[in-house]
Amino acid sequence: MHTKISTGTLEAIEEDRFSLLPPVVYLKSFLKLYAQYLQLDADILVKGYLKHYKTGS
To answer: Residue 57 and residue 51: Cα distance in Å, rounded?
Structure first.
Protein backbone atom coordinates (compact mmCIF):
# COMPACT_ATOMS: atom_id res chain seq x y z
CA MET A 1 0.00 0.00 0.00
CA HIS A 2 1.31 3.40 -0.95
CA THR A 3 0.06 6.41 0.96
CA LYS A 4 0.81 9.01 -1.75
CA ILE A 5 1.91 11.31 1.09
CA SER A 6 5.05 13.21 0.22
CA THR A 7 8.26 12.31 2.01
CA GLY A 8 8.50 15.90 3.24
CA THR A 9 5.06 15.73 4.84
CA LEU A 10 5.80 12.38 6.48
CA GLU A 11 9.05 13.75 7.86
CA ALA A 12 7.26 16.86 9.17
CA ILE A 13 4.68 14.64 10.90
CA GLU A 14 7.32 12.39 12.43
CA GLU A 15 9.55 15.29 13.52
CA ASP A 16 6.75 17.59 14.79
CA ARG A 17 7.70 20.34 12.35
CA PHE A 18 4.24 21.88 12.56
CA SER A 19 5.04 24.89 10.38
CA LEU A 20 5.67 22.56 7.42
CA LEU A 21 2.38 20.66 7.74
CA PRO A 22 -0.57 21.20 5.42
CA PRO A 23 -3.87 22.70 6.65
CA VAL A 24 -5.63 20.57 9.27
CA VAL A 25 -8.28 19.25 6.88
CA TYR A 26 -5.52 17.66 4.77
CA LEU A 27 -3.44 16.68 7.77
CA LYS A 28 -6.32 14.60 9.17
CA SER A 29 -6.59 12.69 5.91
CA PHE A 30 -2.84 12.12 5.77
CA LEU A 31 -2.79 10.90 9.37
CA LYS A 32 -5.62 8.44 8.66
CA LEU A 33 -3.80 7.07 5.62
CA TYR A 34 -0.54 6.82 7.56
CA ALA A 35 -2.25 5.02 10.45
CA GLN A 36 -3.80 2.52 8.06
CA TYR A 37 -0.43 1.97 6.41
CA LEU A 38 1.13 1.30 9.83
CA GLN A 39 -1.86 -0.87 10.81
CA LEU A 40 -2.73 1.38 13.74
CA ASP A 41 -6.09 2.64 14.98
CA ALA A 42 -6.64 5.72 12.82
CA ASP A 43 -9.07 7.42 15.21
CA ILE A 44 -6.70 7.17 18.17
CA LEU A 45 -3.71 8.31 16.12
CA VAL A 46 -5.53 11.30 14.60
CA LYS A 47 -7.01 12.46 17.91
CA GLY A 48 -3.70 12.11 19.72
CA TYR A 49 -1.67 13.83 17.03
CA LEU A 50 -4.10 16.73 16.64
CA LYS A 51 -4.10 17.29 20.40
CA HIS A 52 -0.30 17.37 20.28
CA TYR A 53 -0.38 19.62 17.19
CA LYS A 54 -2.77 22.14 18.74
CA THR A 55 -0.61 22.54 21.84
CA GLY A 56 2.43 23.01 19.61
CA SER A 57 4.59 20.72 21.70
So the answer is: 9
- Mean of pLDDT values over 26-34: 96
Instruction: Output 54 or 48, whichever has higher pLDDT.
Output: 48
8 found inside a domain: no
pTM of the model: 0.86
Dihedral, CA atoms, 27, 32, 37, 42, nearest 10 degrees? 140
| Residue 30 near residue 13 (C-beta atoms within 8 A) | yes
23: left (phi over 0), alpha (psi -120 to 50) or beta: beta
Number of domains the chain is built from: 1
Residue 18 counted as domain residue: no
CA dist., res. 12 & res. 29, Å (int): 15
